[in-house]
Amino acid sequence: MVHNHFHHSRKPLVLLFLGKRNKFKDAEPLCKRALEIREKCLGPSHPDVAKQLNNLALLCQNQNKYDEVESYYKRAIDIYAKSLGPDDPNVAKTKNNLASAYLKQQKYKEAEQLYKDVLTRAHEKEFGSSPQDLSTSTNASGGPYDAQGGWYKTIRADTPTVTTTLKNLSLLYRRQGRYEAADTLENCASRARKDPQSIIQALNIIKQNNNSS
């Protein structure tokens, strides 16, 4: 099971009521109506519209309507990125949501790309640059220390999102039978809160995985 599917707002009580009874089909038109109201009152690019798109995508995912799921999540990502900025945690959270939908469809390449996007953005926020040459950013042992042996500090990127992304990527690799990479990513997730190098190490694993595939 994918770790910590993100929810951006508390769903309306009627959706919770119907959802608990597996009546997702009944809840969908209500959710669509709520989306229409938000679009009319707030405009089509308001963050609250993106929240409702996430709710609607989740309902459709429970009905295996994956084409609609992809469309709703992609629109939500676009809204969040444009209205709140690309570094807003909601962008990364919604990308994780979309990746989880890809994972359920065994679209591993698409899911991996989204996880890579999230981690690359976290790297840029943490280090102020794109990870052009990741191999030069870690020490020979791949450990969490710099040349002076004093690397640990509080990470600037959104830690819960980074941790969840690392866990989800680990799950993806485990499903593909890449157990060593999966174990390493689990280790990265466990130290992500204080160790920015965990992001670099994870991106290196993705790079190696792509080179070997």
How would you describe what is shown here?
The structure is a single chain. Residues 133-154 have low confidence and may be disordered. The protein is built from 9 helices and no strands. Helix 2 (24-42) packs antiparallel against helix 3. It is globular and about 45 Å long. With 213 residues, it is mostly helical.
Question: Secondary-structure map with pairings?
Answer:
Layout: H1 13-20, H2 24-42, H3 47-61, H4 66-84, H5 89-104, H6 108-127, H7 159-175, H8 179-190, H9 197-212
Characteristics:
213 residues, mainly alpha, 2 domains, 67% helix, 0% strand, globular
In short:
By secondary structure, the protein is an all-alpha fold.
Mean of residue pLDDT values: 81
Class inferred from helices and paired strands? mainly alpha
Strand content: under 5%
Rg on CA atoms, Å: 18 Å
Note the main sheet.
none
Q: List the secondary-structure elements in sequence, H or E.
A: HHHHHHHHH
Global geometry? globular
Helical amount: 55-70%
